[in-house]
Design a protein that fits this description.
The chain is an all-alpha fold. The chain has four helices and no strands. It comes from Maricaulis virginensis.
Length: 105
């Protein structure tokens, strides 16, 4: 159950990152409310997951899910540019997450 909570916290991190972009510096109400709600829920789920998952595992995986998800959303839906350097960086993030998970098996 802890891994499910951690994954959900990571997905909510993606949601609040997108909402942060859409809120235009808290100048738009609905995205601002989504951002704050998603942040609170994400932090709560991360905290709950860390009851059984070590900090050194949970936090990097949480931020990695958020970083990877925000990158994908930015490229696919927001028209952000992609190049080989960015792809290499994303590959390193994914490999790092896999290694962290494997190191705790």
């Amino acid at each position: 159950m802890s891994w499910f909570m951690l994954a959900a916290a990571g997905v909510l991190e993606i949601v609040w990152a997108i909402a942060m972009k859409q809120s235009l510096g808290f100048s738009r109400l609905t995205p601002s409310l989504i951002k704050v709600s998603a942040m609170l829920a994400s932090f709560w789920l991360l905290s709950a997951a860390m009851r059984t998952i070590p900090l050194g595992t949970a936090y990097p995986i949480w931020t990695g899910i958020g970083a990877l998800g925000a990158f994908i959303v930015g490229v696919i839906f927001l028209g952000e540019t992609i190049n080989m350097t960015k792809l290499a960086a994303v590959l390193f993030i994914v490999l790092g997450l896999i290694l962290i998970k494997l190191s705790n098996s």
